[in-house]
Every structure is written in structure tokens, then in C-alpha cells.
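FIELD: query
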Amino acid sequence: MFGRTAWTVYAVLAVCCLLIEIGDAQLRLSSQDFLFVNGDPVASLAGLTVLSFAVAALHEGSHWLAARAQGVSATFSVGRRQYFLVFETDLTQLWTLPRGRRYGPLLAGMAFDTTVLASALLARHLLAPVHPAAGSTHAGRLLAALCAVLCVNLLWQFAVFLRNDLYAVMITWLGCVNLWRGTQLLAIQRLRALHPDELDELTNAHPRDLRAARWYSWVCLLGTIAAVWFALEVPLRVVLTVLRWMLTMMTTRPITSVGFWEAVGLTLMALLPQLMVLGVFLRERRQRRDGRRAAVA
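FIELD: result
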């Protein structure tokens, strides 16, 4: 799975997927691909949540497999990048390996996404001649939704200000140690005086981190602005739409009806990523508070 031949295949598949998305209007990513449950936005969102979680778990499993192929272990966790929920694979032990052996485990998740995307695009292409209205069938809609999820996942990796897979590839290529923390400390220094421990951390930061932070800080600033705009345009509207739908369903149907509890279940499933982000935020806050208490003690 991670030999030279395999990586050549993954690269070819990535180029093919890109050419198909550019050149084939029928298979190109569309906003309608996200409405795959009979045009019902809330049911579609709930289904996309389950589909996204499954794809994310297998994506992280690919990181783990590639790390094991290099002889190092990895662990899983759930975290957040700003308000985005992320599944994480801790690949810290990769930094004990030579630089050239780190790229495979770091890119393994994208290789998995690309392989599944290419397979789904091929299935949609083969399904079209068999069924002229393939896009309207259950299989066609599900494949289109899977392609949409995978395209979003791959595009997400290019948002390097969120410390994703390509961020790890970038700092490996640049020879950095902790670019994110160095950039964060420099940004804090511009706003206020650093605490003694922060000043000591910045003084001992790797020179490559500080050099790269000069331009990476602008990437983070522009990326954060874009993330705030996106939050106002998409997630916030989605949450409000789902809540309005839930209130309408719950106030118009009796509590003993199937429709009432279906509305509750679909709403909880659709809002699960946001609820998990809130849970991760509270966990981080508790850990920081416990850390401060331990330091005082």
C-alpha cells in the first residue's frame, strides 16, 4: 500500500480526479450533491454527518497503517481546529525518522481519499449508460454525496493555517520544529508583553520556525478571516435552519408520533459535529484550568 508503485498509482489517480472535476460537468462537484436524501436538507445533513465520520475514521486509519509500515506507532483522538471538528492521528514519533520517511504517513490520508474518490467517480461514470437517470437513483445520489464529502476533505487539506496534513508536510519540507507555536508567540508578542515562560519558549524556538513565521503569520491571519466569514455564511445558517425545522416539526406533531422523534433524532445527528466541537472546547478549558492549578501547587 505504501511502496513506490502504490504512490505512483495514487499520484495518477489524483491527476485523473482533478481532470474529471474540471472537464466533466456531469461529475463535477455541485451543491445539489449534498441534498441526496430525496431533497430533504436536514435528513441529507444527518446522512452526510454519518458518511463524513466514516470517511474521516478510514482517513485516519490510513495514517496509522502508513506509520506502522515505517515502524512507528500512532494514536487517535478527537480535536478541533477553531470551530471545525477533526479526527486526529498523533504522528509525533515520525519525527524520530529521517525526513524522507515521514512524507508517506503524512500523505496517506489524502491517498485514501483520492483512491475512494476515483472509485466513486468511476462507478458514477459506469452507472450512467446503464441508467440514463443515474443521478436520480439512490445509488447515484449516494455516490454523488460521497464524492462531495471526499472533495471537501481534500480541499480542506490545503487550509494549512488549520494545521492539517499538508501543514505537516510543509513543516517537514521546511525543516521546522513547531511553526504554529512560534507564529502564535510572535502574534501574542505584538499584542501584549509575553509571560516569562512564553518569553523563554520564544527565545528557545528553532530559527527556522521564526523565519517561516514571518510569512506564515499572514497565512494564518487571512485564513482566520476566511474562516470567520465561512462560519457566518455556512455553519451558522445551517444550525439555525436545522433548529427552525426541529421546532416546526416538534410543535406541529404530537410527542407520541414517529415524526416527532424522527425530528429529534435527525436534529441531534445533524448537529453532532457542532456538539462535539463544544465538548472538545470544554475539555480543553478544563485541561488548561487543571494545568494552572497543578502549576500553582
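FIELD: remark
The chain has a mean pLDDT of 86.
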